[in-house]
Amino acid sequence: MENHDESADRGQDDQGLKEVPRLAERYARHRTTGPFLIVSLVVVAMFVGIHAVLYLVGPYIKGHDQAIIGLILGGMVVVVVAVTLLVGGGKFPRRWGQKLYDRDGQVHERPRPSLVPRWLFVLVAVAAGTCLAGQIILSRLGYLSTRYSQPISATYAVPFMIILGLWRKTPATSSMMGLWPALYAVHAILVATDAPFFRSIDGGTHMFIATFGYGAVIGLLAYVDSRLALRKLRRLMHPKRTNVEP
Amino acid sequence: MVLAGVASADFNFLLGALGLTRGNLSTHMDRLERSGYVAIAKSFNGRIPHTSYQITAAGQKALNEYWAQLDVIRNIECGHGKRRAPGSGTGI
Q1: What's the pTM?
Q2: Predicted complex ipTM
Q3: Residue range(s) defining the domain that contains residue A145
């Protein structure tokens, strides 16, 4: 007859096994960020690379060395165009996103019903697109400050990101992407209130951080979470048998 | 259980998740398919065969019944455990 402790242990094992479907779902959902993560990392690397090059050629620009300036700028244009074509085509991020998970095999997330109607998503998307175009035009004309371009964009970008997350017609993005509007909004508040570190950064960099920067961070978090979920799932499915069977 | 959380999973994923041998997994999945609990889809990725599995409605129902029965057994055992060792100090 088994004692109370052994039956309690078996109960805990059963409860642990109940987590298996949830862990599988969590893994499948977060692995969808693979291609997005690749694109974000490539764009961040390009941004950092361009700024590094501009920093290095600074003395030549000041010295008006046109040959060097032309060469470096020409090289940068070639790199940017090449990367854009490579990444924009979609095949590269999909292939490299898949490579992150190739060894695991393939698994597909269950599609979930949209939480908002399609017409609302379309309406918000059109409004956000219009606001974006308006902001660019007004900034060019000098009516809007470029310094506060990120907080201004947050007024339409954050609602759009929230509605996009709620609409999610296909399982194209991890639920962790819901963090993005939150980070975008917090960043906007810090810029708008001239928070100490944030006031020393230019408007364009703020926009970049809030879009691709946070996107890359969330993509990485989702990737790490997917690995943790898979690891826990595997541990539950092949437990180490240390107890001696009667 | 793994298939209950996802739309579908392929053979390689289940192999890694479950820690079974290829033959063992294949046999289990064939039996589950014959019982109507799992649907199998075979295709090719280029020239490489690819097998994908999906839990059926009957399979999901059977799994839910399994958990319900385990809960009943666990509750019975917990009741017996309390009666058997009232002074154990590890009461649930």
Answers
A1: 0.72
A2: 0.78
A3: 113-222
